[in-house]
Structures are given as C-alpha cells and as structure tokens.
Amino acid sequence: MSDTDETLENGANGEEQEEPRIKVEDKRHWAREDRDEESGDDDEPTSTVPTIIDEYRQRAEAAETKLHEYIEAFKASQAEQDQFRERLNRDVERRVSLQFSGLVGELLESIDNLDLALSHAEGIPEAKPLADGVAMVRSQFLASLTRQGVEQIQPEGEEFDPEVAEALSLVPVQDPAQNNKVLQTMRPGYRMGDQVVRPARVVVGKFSG
Q1: pTM of the model
Q2: 121 and 80 within one domain
Q3: 124-144, pLDDT tens digit by residue?
C-alpha cells in the first residue's frame, strides 16, 4: 500500500493528524519592546538614580547657596568694620576736643590777666599807650581763638542757664521781668560748639514779690 493510500485510509477513518508546530522567535529589538509594552508589566520599579543633569543642577544650587552665604558674611564684616571706624573716629575726635579744650582753658587765663591789666590801667593817662598795646594783643588773641571755633559766652540780659553760667550772687529786683535774668557778666565764658570750655560768671536778678 502506498503512502497516499494510507493517508486516504486514515482520513476515511475520520482521524485528522495534527501538524507539528514550529516556534518562531522575532529577534527584532523594536518587536521585543512592543511585546513588553503589550504585556502591561508596569510593576517593574523605575530607576531613582539621578541623571548627570540633575547632579550638575544640584551642585550648581549648592554652590549658589554657598556664594550667598559668603556674600552675606562679607557684608556683615564690612558693616562691622565701618562701625568700628566710626567709633574710632568719634573717640579720636573726642580726645582731641578734650585736649584742645584743656589748652584753651589755660590760654583763657592769659586773657583774664590781660583784662586785669587793662582794668588797672584804666583812668591813668600815663598808662594809655601801654593799655592800647595790651588791648590790641587781647583782640588778636580772641580773634585767633574764634578762628579755631571758640565762642565767647556773654549771657547778660538772657535767662540764667546753669549749663553755661555760674551765678556768683542773686540781686533783688523790683521788675518781675528781670527775675532769673542775668544782670551782669563778671567774667565771660567760652565754648566750642556744644561743649562749654569755661562757664561765665554772672549776677542774677531775683524778684521777691
């Protein structure tokens, strides 16, 4: 019996023979990616390792933060140095002012002596040439002090101010408008700006009512 006859005989018996299956594997990479997407395997964990761009961005942000910190520290240091220089300058100015005030106070005693000499020469005709010379020296002396910022205090007619004057005596007055007013300046005072180098000595009126 031939093979054809055998096949016909098996078909006639109602039995179908199953053809062998051949497994075909598609090795194309895009085909594999499509199969992976179709498989719906979403449970695979994604990578958390930062990319190189993220790493550079983080480094840049850290460097910028550090730069701002350095800038703020520099500004604070500059402000502290400026405050220190201001304090130092004020301290130097105060020391110089005190030393100059002390020198002016000593020089004022010389003016007092010149005033005393003029008072003794007053009314003496023979002493007039000498008195004129002393008066000229006194004027030059006062002009030099004025150029250095020294101002004379002559509070006569003003309200008595214990900050700039000393009351040598209180004189009764009949006019209430003269109460606590400086009636006479016995010795002028001197000041430099707001600093009193020497207070004036004055006579103050006192209204008794």
Answers
A1: 0.53
A2: yes
A3: 888 888 889 989 998 998 898
Rounded CA separation 206/162 (Å): 15
With beta carbons less than 8 A apart as the criterion, state whether 111 and 139 touch: no
CB atoms inside a 10 Å sphere around CB 98: 11
Same domain, 136 and 72: yes
H/E element, 190: strand 189-192
How far from each other are the two terminal CA atoms of the chain, in whole angstroms? 169
- The three-state DSSP-derived secondary structure of 142-181 is HHHHHHCCEEEECCCCCECCCCCEEEEEEEEECCHHHCCE
For residues 61 and 141, membership in a common domain is answered with: yes
Give the C-alpha separation, 201 to 178, whole Å. 17
What is the per-residue DSSP string for 18-58? PPPP-------HHHHHHHHHHHT-TTSPPP-PPPHHHHHHH
Q: Give me the torsion for CA of 106, 108, 110, 113, rounded to 10°.
A: -130
Q: Specify the residue for token string 């850290």.
A: 62
